[in-house]
Amino acid sequence: MNPLPSEFGKELDSLVDVVSFGIAPSILGYTFIYKDFYLFASLALFIYLFCSVMRLARYNITPKESLVNCFYGLPTTASGGTLASFILIYRKKGLIEIPQFVPVVFVFMILVLSLLMISNVRYLNLDGLKQFFGKNTFWVALVLGIIVIISFLFKKAGIVFFCLFLIYLIFSPFVVKRLNNL
To answer: Where are the beta strands (DSSP E) in the chain?
Structure first.
């Protein structure tokens, strides 16, 4: 077996990412947040999908030397995870209505995440996280794992994951800047 990634594998991985973190959150969001057809929400979700594709295409053509500790633009995995965790919090439960502000917040979040994906804002990749946490990487991963397990036990996984994604969205660019200044 060839341990180096092939061009075919790279393209297939991008296609899978588009489906998993572009199409799936869009369909889930529309299904669980909106009851009827809303043109503005549909347009926002299309923009999100388009930005997901553009983000992955840019990643594929970016020289790997420039991706030492960071990505340029919000990774599609983080944006898809943010949307999916938000949906977990506010999904329809039978006859219980979701609050009226949720569809507006969801569209706003879709548009912000779309812009962040195609922006030049730098976000940590796994190498950057390892460098930032250094010798504490194992302990940080262990604590996060325990928090996730507890969140599943208390049926609060959506809130915990949403908070973790927000922490990444907000603080990752500052950490990248700090790592580059060292």
So the answer is: 70-72, 122-124
Residue 70 to residue 178: CA distance in whole angstroms: 12
From 67, 174, 160, 48, select the one nearest 115 (Cα to Cα): 48
Q: How far apart, in whole angstroms, are the C-alpha atoms of residue 47 and residue 49?
A: 5
In the block, which residue shows the tokens 């976000």? 123
Strand partners, 122: 72
Q: How far apart are CA 47 and CA 92, in angstroms?
A: 24
As a whole number of angstroms, the distance between CA 38 and CA 121 comes to: 31
34-76: pLDDT as tens digits: 777 788 888 999 999 999 999 998 888 888 777 788 889 999 9
Amino acid at 46: F
Answer for the pair 159, 151: CB distance below 8 angstroms, yes or no: yes
Distance between CA atoms of 22 and 41, rounded to whole angstroms?
Answer: 15
Q: Exposed/middle/buried for 129, CB within 10 Å: 0-12, 13-18, 19+?
A: middle
Q: Which helix (H) or strand (E) holds 24?
A: helix 24-33
Using one digit for the tens of pLDDT, what is the confidence trace for 79-123? 999 999 998 887 755 445 667 788 888 999 999 999 999 999 999
